[in-house]
Amino acid sequence: MALVVISKQILEKEGAVVKKLILIAGLVALVLGILLVILAFLGMLELEPQEIGIEADGGEVILHAPGYILSGQLLILTLETNPTTGYSWQLGEFDEAVLKLELYKYVPREHVAGQMGVGGEAIWYFQAQSPGTTILHLEYTRSWEEDVEPAKTLTVQIVVQSASLLPR
């Protein structure tokens, strides 16, 4: 009888150890699953460039702009322009602690070789530096004309928020 009691106690101890191992393995799997979900969520928060653009729909002008951008994010401003008319967009002063101009380029519209008067796009690339607000003010002018109102103006408020404030 003593032998039966001892073997029952050994089996109970081994069963308890197996249960603990199963519990630990389950907890490890749960933690790994949570980590994978967190990593997948963070991957979705990659800082894609934000674009600002304007399009004309008949007499209506539509501004496409995000409500805010995140520090470290790229902001792309694209405006139609036609330098063959003498006009070009002039960017005014802005807070460079909030936004840094990385690159400006003009991209001509596709056209037949030799075709005259074809416009294109003026494109500015800004890097959001630190949280804050700044104003981008642009005027469509001819450089040689003085004391003349710009043909067009554009003013856009840019709000930069800290990327660390995002829900995780």
Automatic annotation (TrEMBL):
<dbReference type="Pfam" id="PF09394">
    <property type="entry name" value="Inhibitor_I42"/>
</dbReference>
<keyword id="KW-0812">Transmembrane</keyword>
<dbReference type="GO" id="GO:0004869">
    <property type="term" value="F:cysteine-type endopeptidase inhibitor activity"/>
</dbReference>
<keyword id="KW-0472">Membrane</keyword>
<protein>
    <recommendedName>
        <fullName>Proteinase inhibitor I42 chagasin domain-containing protein</fullName>
    </recommendedName>
</protein>
<keyword id="KW-1133">Transmembrane helix</keyword>
<dbReference type="InterPro" id="IPR036331">
    <property type="entry name" value="Chagasin-like_sf"/>
</dbReference>
<feature type="domain" description="Proteinase inhibitor I42 chagasin">
    <location>
        <begin position="72"/>
        <end position="158"/>
    </location>
</feature>
<dbReference type="InterPro" id="IPR052781">
    <property type="entry name" value="Cys_protease_inhibitor_I42"/>
</dbReference>
<dbReference type="InterPro" id="IPR018990">
    <property type="entry name" value="Prot_inh_I42_chagasin"/>
</dbReference>
<feature type="transmembrane region" description="Helical">
    <location>
        <begin position="21"/>
        <end position="45"/>
    </location>
</feature>
<keyword id="KW-0646">Protease inhibitor</keyword>
<keyword id="KW-0789">Thiol protease inhibitor</keyword>
